[in-house]
Amino acid sequence: MNETMRLLTNRRTYRNFDQKYQLSDLDLQQILDAARQAPSWMNGQFYSVIVIKDEAIRKQLIEWNPTNPHILESSVFLLFLGDLQRTKMVSETYQKPYLVDETIESIIMATTDAALALENAVIAVDSLGLGSVVVGSIRKFSKEISELLELPDFTLPLFGLSIGKPIVEMRVKPRLPEATIVHYDKYQPYSYELIEAYDKTMEHFAEARETKLWSQKFADYFATKPIMVVDQVARLKKIVK
User: How far is residue 105's CA from residue 19's CA, in Å, rounded to a whole number?
Assistant: First the structure.
């Protein structure tokens, strides 16, 4: 197994960081360069990254995300946006209609491009011997974050990434059985017993922050009215009707 495969198959999330550690400008630039080189549909690059070092901003983010203190304790926090503002400028320059509000495709493109850039950043961080944790809960406060950071229309906060030097070693988290994820040629039906087996695996893994079975957690989540980004930010009606 080569070093790249070793990094990918041993990736883990870190939430506890050395608060005295400062990420060097060189390492930060390498992470950003890796993120920007991620695949992108039609090379559209429908995302932006905000590097947040300011302590006051990060403290405010924690007020909205109190279960994520690493936003401040990490060396730097990256905020990944879906960004359709850039192509709006292009459309205006060419005097073309900008019809992103007529399809969900634009949201899919922006989210996918941002996610690919995020993953490149995660692997770059690991390659530098550092650690990171992805923060998806920022979408619950997208309106507030948009105002705080003075984001333009046609942008939306999607997820953040705390980066730092880990002080607590983490185990590699088990994933769902391969048969529930990987299919060849056709989608292959599988027994619910595989999900039950995964519940037992995760119970045995005993991650302290998990208080429910994996299956119960998502049964509850999808039974709750959504409060994420598209549901609460009125200005995104310019993107999705």
Answer: 40
Q: Which two tokens stand for residue 142?
A: 């997208």
Specify the amino acid at residue 128.
L
Q: Strand, coil or helix: what is 78?
A: strand
- Structural domain includes residue 194: no
Tell me the CATH number at 44: 3.40.109.10
Domain that holds residue 34: 3-172+228-238
Question: Is the confidence at residue 38, as pLDDT, over 90?
Answer: yes
- Flag whether 207 is in a domain: no
Q: What is the pLDDT of residues 45-64, one digit of tens each?
A: 999 999 999 999 999 999 99
Distance of alpha carbon 153 from the chain centroid: 20
Q: Is 141 exposed, middle or buried (0-12, 13-18, 19+ CB in 10 A)?
A: buried
Residue 212 within a domain: no
Q: Distance between CA atoms of 199 and 84, rounded to whole angstroms?
A: 39
Domain membership flag for residue 137: yes
Query: 42 in the Ramachandran plot: left (φ > 0), alpha (ψ -120 to 50) or beta?
Result: left
Q: What does residue 8 show for φ and ψ, rounded to 5 degrees?
A: -65, -45
pTM of the prediction?
A: 0.93
The Cα 43–Cα 203 span in angstroms is 42
Q: How many domains does the chain have?
A: 1
Could you give the CA distance from residue 77 to residue 121 in angstroms, rounded to a whole number?
Answer: 12
- Angular region, 45: left φ>0, alpha ψ -120 to 50, beta rest: left
